[in-house]
Amino acid sequence: MPRAPTARHLQDQMPPAVDLPRAGKRPARGRWSVALLAALGLADCAPLAPGFYDAATIDDPNLPSCMWTRRFSPPIVYQESDFIRAFFEPVNLAAYRQAIPAPFAMPPRPLVRVSVLHYYEMENGPIYHESEVSVLALHEGKPGWFVLTMPVTDGDACAGGRNALGTPKVMRRITLERGADQHVGTSYARGGRTPEFTLTVAFGEPGAAAREVLRFVSPFPDLYILRGSVLKLGGGRGSIETLETAAPGVWKIRLGTARLEAGGDPESVLQRLGVGSPLVAYWGRLRFRFSITPQ
What we know:
Acetoacetate decarboxylase-like, 7 helices, globular, disordered N terminus
């Protein structure tokens, strides 16, 4: 039986792939190029701490392999997606420090971000679910979300993201259930039977402290490692809670509170980090046509 591929094994089979920028990242003229993305922030990267960043086996035995199938020809064009996202206090600060390799540094205010996303309307490209676990870190003195793991449900999205942006994507089962009063996202462990985590966002008006957290985290970009260098993507000037007012045809936002149930695997990222109290959560829908074109 062949071994599940590692990140190194995948490098030779990857295409000039494409991937979606994180929700809230407005593309120039409706299109990003990989060359432009790479120019947004590159720096030498030191060896990574084991067990946290991109540590999981990439393939899942019950899902397609993480590889580019050539079903789609670039550019991949996105039209609409939605997601739930929550922010938490970390419990184990020693583990949090270990999860942040050089050239990143511990921030004054450590935070954990957990999301479940669904890219359900594509003009050209795969429809897929995604989840992610990130920690706030400093890069060159500025905060950003260092993405530790990013499971997805589609092999083209997996291979494309790893190659184009350095996203730590792996193949996993993910679901997002939508209700009138709450949305529930579940990211499953390898094999698709046991939840790695379940994130529930119940809609309601948050208090002043929760809104302060939203304003605090809104400007921060995502941080990826692409072929040994740091890539920064996104970040915004306005607060998350004002996105719908600023662009009502593009954004739909519902604020709320979060409940996170982590699975029992002691080696999972969330179990190792030790996630504490939920601070704030929200649902977002992005309706905007854009693409990433490799060069």
